[in-house]
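Entry 14. Structure prediction run on the chain below.
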Amino acid sequence: MSYLIPRLEFAAQSLFKKQSYCPHCHSKSLENIAKKYLVINIKKCNNCYLNFTDPIYKPLLVANLYKQLYTAEGSTTCTPNSEQLNDLIDNCFRSSDKFFGERIQSIKSQCNGNKILELGSSWGYFLYQAKQQGFDVTGVEISKPRREFGINNLKVNIVDSFNKLDNDNFDLFYTAHTLEHFVDLSTIFKEIHRVLKDKGQLLIEVPNFNFAELGKKVLSTVGAVHPIGFSNQFFQENLPKYGFKILGFYDSWNCFPKHQVDKSSTENIILLAEKNVNQK
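Output returned:
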C-alpha cells in the first residue's frame, strides 16, 4: 500500500498537471519523446537537452509517504541498527553494498587536494570511508534522520544545505545517484561552482538516459522518484556554461580514472570535470 498510494497520486497528477517548462533552464521549447504507463509523458528540452517527466511528481495528500518510494534503494536510505553498524565498521564496510574503499583509492589518485564535499550523503557511509583514507569530508543531506545518524554514529560532518558552505573551499565535489532526484536544477551547478576551489574537480554519477541510443529500456530510470533523465549531451552542452571543463567520461568505476571514453554508453554516466580558473 505504501508504494501504491503515491504512485496513484502521481498518475492522477498526470491527468491534471503539466510540466510546461524545463526544470533546468526554464525553456518552454520542449518535445515529447516517450510515454510511460500510458499517462506519463517524458519530455526533452530543446534548449539544454535535459529529459524529465511530465508532470514532475510533487507529493500532496500523501507527502508523509513519499519516503516510501525510496525503500527500493535498501541500505542507501535504511540506516543500520547498532549491531549491523558495528559489523560494518569492524569490516571497513567490506562485503556490503556500501563498500567504497577501492573507489576512494581511485579518487585519491586523481584528486589534487583532500577536501571533499559530497551531495546526497544519506547516513554518511561514503564520507566515513573517505575520512578513514585521510580526506577532510563534508556532506550535504536534506533528510534530517539520515543526516543526524551520520553525525552521531559515524562522526562525519553533514549539513542540510549549500547555505552552510563557504565559497572556494573544496578540492572535489562528489555526487552519485542524487541529481536525478532533483525537481529543480536551476541553481545546483552554480552552487557547485561556488564552493569549489579554482581547478577543483566535479565527479558525477547518474543513470544514463540516452533514449536515442539506448531505447525504451532507459524509461525504467525515470518516474516519481527520478524525475530527471541525464544524457552525455546535457553535460557536454551545459557544464562549460557554468565554468567547468569536462576531463572525461567513464563506462564504470573500474575504468576510472585511466580509461576515458567519448561518452558513457553503459547504464550509468560517470564524468569528471574541472572548475576553470577565475571563471565565475
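Residues 62-74 have pLDDT under 50 and may be disordered.
Filed with the rest of this week's runs.
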